[in-house]
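re the bet — no i am not wrong, look at it urself. input seq straight from the record:
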Amino acid sequence: MNTTYRIMLILGCFLLGFFLVMAAFPGVFTPYGLKDMFRPWLAPSADHVLGTNSLGYDIFTELVHGTRETLLIGLSGSILMIALGTVIGMLSTLNGFPGTLFNGLINIFMLLPGLISLIVLSAFVGHSTVNLIFLIAVFSWVGTARNVRARVIHLNSQPFIESCVVQGYSRLHIIFCHILPNLYDLLLSRFLMGINSCIMMESTLSFLGIGDVYHPTWGTMVNLAYRRGAFMRRAFHYLLPPGACIMLLCLSFYFISLGLQSRRSEIDL
């Protein structure tokens, strides 16, 4: 593996590991609970690393506890996105009406304005975390479906698949034993980058006030900071850290994706 990609992979794993530990063991990083209250708008100090917000809650504590919700939405949304994209992408390669139907579904969702549709639909289904994950996945699977469709069409034209058909293997056997294993690298790459996409989409929605306020994420923190006057007070210690954490978390998955792709390319060679 190229030295640059190796460093990126190590750095990505380190950043992701740090955030995973923060999400799993928040008490290691902060001695306060989410409901512990202090004087409002305290400046950063030894007792409060990022100060306190307008209600007197410790900002760093909110940041630490928001890690779990942000990761949960990113991972869950990406898993559901991959599942939908894989199934629909493979169904679109079928002959006849079923293939035409699912291929048309892909083309329709490509034309839909994702963010606007999410904003409108969230007003009807509610702002809970589960609804948000479902909506993000529903409007994020198209890219995966298109890539899966192209790869499956290519695989179906290969001699080893034609040999399996001639020998009488069932379609399910061919899919699970020969096609899905050859989609591994594609799905892994789409999964890692899908986490970034889901996190960014959730952060955008939360900043617009559509997130789950009962289970706040980093995006919700930015929204609340803006609404409570942090910008007017120049409280950048409240505004910037959630955005920086979103950037670093997305960078970790991006670096891991690049490192794994480089490693995969060397193995293929």
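see?? Residues 3-268 form a domain with the MetI-like fold fold (CATH 1.10.3720.10). told u. also The chain has one domain: 3-268. so pay up
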